[in-house]
């Protein structure tokens, strides 16, 4: 049985040198037999911005557990949290303080009909290019770029070309 209430409050969240530690995910799936990649974006609670699920890292959970919980609470998806995409420092728009954000990809195994923040957020599956355009956070866009590069590495021919110093003059 799953709890349908989001954790709230910041008194049990992790901080490092005054920076709140934030964890997020880029939920993704392969849409059809062609293997078309889609990512899931959600609206902010006030509905003015699109982003990936993210929130505070609680004291009683691992970073991967926090990422998984945020996806469940905010986007209503569960799946496999994969290797960290990176760490970013960013300034909170609402409080004007710095946060340290960790992002992970999550291969979605199930999309739920009921989840804790269903009445607060919209969720939309879209192509990577569309998600990059609508995402409001620069650091989440950078995480998306890292994810795409990881999932679509250059072919051997492209790597040879990129690594060569061919003089075409």
TrEMBL record:
<dbReference type="Pfam" id="PF00293">
    <property type="entry name" value="NUDIX"/>
</dbReference>
<dbReference type="GO" id="GO:0005634">
    <property type="term" value="C:nucleus"/>
</dbReference>
<dbReference type="GO" id="GO:0016462">
    <property type="term" value="F:pyrophosphatase activity"/>
</dbReference>
<keyword id="KW-0479">Metal-binding</keyword>
<protein>
    <recommendedName>
        <fullName>Nudix hydrolase domain-containing protein</fullName>
    </recommendedName>
</protein>
<keyword id="KW-0460">Magnesium</keyword>
<dbReference type="GO" id="GO:0005737">
    <property type="term" value="C:cytoplasm"/>
</dbReference>
<keyword id="KW-0464">Manganese</keyword>
<dbReference type="GO" id="GO:0046872">
    <property type="term" value="F:metal ion binding"/>
</dbReference>
<comment type="similarity">
    <text>Belongs to the Nudix hydrolase family.</text>
</comment>
<keyword id="KW-0378">Hydrolase</keyword>
<dbReference type="InterPro" id="IPR047198">
    <property type="entry name" value="DDP-like_NUDIX"/>
</dbReference>
<feature type="domain" description="Nudix hydrolase">
    <location>
        <begin position="18"/>
        <end position="148"/>
    </location>
</feature>
<dbReference type="InterPro" id="IPR000086">
    <property type="entry name" value="NUDIX_hydrolase_dom"/>
</dbReference>
<dbReference type="InterPro" id="IPR015797">
    <property type="entry name" value="NUDIX_hydrolase-like_dom_sf"/>
</dbReference>
């Amino acid at each position: 049985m799953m709890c349908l209430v989001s954790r709230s409050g910041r008194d049990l969240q992790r901080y490092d040198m005054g920076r709140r530690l934030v964890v997020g995910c880029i939920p993704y799936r392969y849409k059809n037999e062609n293997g078309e990649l889609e990512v899931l974006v959600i609206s902010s609670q006030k509905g003015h911005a699109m982003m990936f699920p993210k929130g505070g890292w609680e004291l009683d959970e691992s970073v991967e557990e926090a990422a998984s919980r945020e996806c469940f609470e905010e986007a209503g998806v569960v799946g496999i949290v994969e290797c960290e995409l990176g760490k970013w420092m960013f300034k909170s728009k609402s409080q004007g303080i710095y946060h340290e954000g960790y992002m992970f990809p999550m291969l979605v195994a199930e999309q739920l009909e009921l989840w804790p923040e269903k009445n607060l957020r919209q969720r939309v599956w879209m192509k990577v290019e569309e998600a990059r355009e609508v995402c409001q956070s620069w650091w989440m866009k950078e995480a998306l770029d890292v994810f795409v590069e990881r999932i679509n590495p250059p072919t051997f021919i492209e790597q040879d070309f990129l690594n060569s110093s061919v003089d075409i003059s």
